[in-house]
Amino acid sequence: MRTPRELLVTVARRVGWLVGRRPRRVLVRGGSMAPTLRDGDVVLALPGATVRPGELALVRWASRPGQLSVKRAALAFDDGWFAVGDAPAASTDSRTLGPAEVVGPVRWRLWPHPGRLHAR
User: Which whole-number Å values give the CA distances from 14 to 8, 24, 83, in the listed order?
Assistant: First the structure.
């Protein structure tokens, strides 16, 4: 089994040249994405890559420009995405903050259980 670092290097080599930007490791905080992701998970975001509906994405909101969040990109609009948490009761998302700007998709968990994350 590969270590998280080996997985990161492999994924970065495979997709880095396609994206034109460096993959970004993100530490998940809070329970808004449970059961898909848990507090303390480390995921890999691909800034600039295309996001499809149902995929996890690294997002930001105009009302919280300094904060990045991992949410599920549910529906694309002209001015952004409707992005929601998998645990609605524990999530502050587009339902209260409005459309989100997608930074890039989140397709891999690096830690604690490395592997591909799938769209719903």
Answer: 10, 14, 27
This prediction has a pTM of 0.83
pLDDT digits (tens, 9 = 90+) for 8-43: 666 666 655 454 578 999 999 999 999 999 999 999
Q: Report which DSSP code applies to 19.
A: H
Both tokens of residue 98?
């409005």
Residues 82, 86, 109, CA angle at the centre, nearest 5°? 100
Report residue 78 as tokens.
């002209």
Q: Is the CB of residue 97 less than 8 Å from the CB of residue 61?
A: yes
Q: Is 11 helix (H, G, I), strand (E, B) or coil?
A: helix
